[in-house]
Amino acid sequence: MSIRTLDDLLAEGVSGRRVLVRADLNVPLDKQTGAITDDGRIRAVLPTLGALVEAGAKVVVCSHLGRPKGAPDPQFSLRPVAGRLGELLGAPVHFATDTVGDSARSTVADLADGQVALLENLRFNAGETSKDEAERGAFADQLAAFGDAYVDDAFGAVHRKHASVYDVPPRLPHVAGRLVLREVEVLSKLTSDPERPYVVVLGGSKVSDKLAVIEALLPTVDRLLIGGGMCFTFLKAQGLEVGTSLLEKDMVETCRNLLERSGGKILLPVDVVVADAFAPDAAHDTVRVDGIPSHRLGLDVGPETVAGFTAALSPAKTIFWNGPMGVFEMPAFAAGTRGIAEAITKADAFSVVGGGDSAAAVRALGLDESSFGHISTGGGASLEYLEGKALPGIAALEN
Ligand SMILES: Nc1ncnc2c1ncn2[C@@H]1O[C@H](COP(=O)(O)OP(=O)(O)O)[C@@H](O)[C@H]1O
Ligand SMILES: O=C(OP(=O)(O)O)[C@H](O)COP(=O)(O)O
Description:
By secondary structure, this protein is α/β, with parallel strands linked by helices. The protein has helices at 6-12, 40-44, 46-54, 79-89, 102-109, 126-129, 133-144, 163-167, 178-191, 207-217, 231-237, 252-261, 303-313, 335-346, 356-364, 380-386, 392-398, and strands at 18-23, 58-62, 93-95, 116-118, 149-153, 174-176, 198-202, 223-226, 266-267, 271-275, 284-288, 297-301, 318-322, 350-354, 374-376.
């Protein structure tokens, strides 16, 4: 089955037509100031938006930001993203203060050819993420009313069966945007006979999402290195005390099972940096994993772990990395992420970094982006792609 592309749509002519673009503008924000700390995901969608603007389309962009619970929540407003997007495009972006309400309707109606509007956060509406098909469908109807055609350029969200990625395409002529095509092209290199050793590094905080992927990845990889918030459920499964670290209690048994069946492919931290609190200035120490005090939480992997992971990465020919090794946003807990990122760049391997925060970490730590083979905008999305799963957002474009 083939997917129509943005070029197909441009060839038909879009001047004066309303084009609804699903982007992944889920950028990290500073918790105190609300400022955008990394605009990589905004930049990544510029090729698609720029081409549509140039061709004279009325461009209606929609996205989620964070995980609000189906109702407006000011801390997750896309307004700052509209400002940054306008700066990068060199023209103001019209911001609708709701997603499918009066503000959205009038903002879209007032768009001139070649102008761009951004709707408020899709996840302020329960219909976006609902498991109920009818509820999602009703929301998709409202979104689809804003477009004469639909472009999916939200690679980071193609693994979500959500209204804007899964239910809108059947309602409008639909194509894949430039970012989605590029991501799939590069990631397909990792699924078709990757050069070995093939090493995958996992971390981050979306533990329950990603634990499910490990099972599917295990048979295809040579080593699986696990750090970040992800490692504590595994350490617990080994019978260790993890204090108040991030822990997915329901998954401890699954992790025990995975460890038993992994044939030694899974490598876990041997030391971690533990702190009194989840705060930049919290008192902290490095301890061995069998010495985590019950009142402290692990916020980074330790130097011995970095050395062990580096040794496992150095012979690799293919590397995929998703999820920071620690809370890299706080300098006291950034050394593990930096160490692993440096080890990846030093290996003579084709390396892919995936995930909004992992990509942000590479840039925030001042690492040379060009020393990675590819920096993907999607963490969960790229992992599920590697798993060989049909991704709802891609499948919807195929039909
Ligand atoms: N030990 C830890 N405890 C809590 N959070 C962690 C830990 N290690 C990493 N993190 C957090 O994980 C977040 C990124 O996780 P995730 O969203 O899964 O990654 P990505 O966006 O790259 O897919 C970062 O904000 C980082 O601070
Ligand atoms: O940040 C994202 O995914 P990622 O952290 O796996 O890279 C995407 O924007 C998807 O967000 P979600 O995991 O809240 O659906």
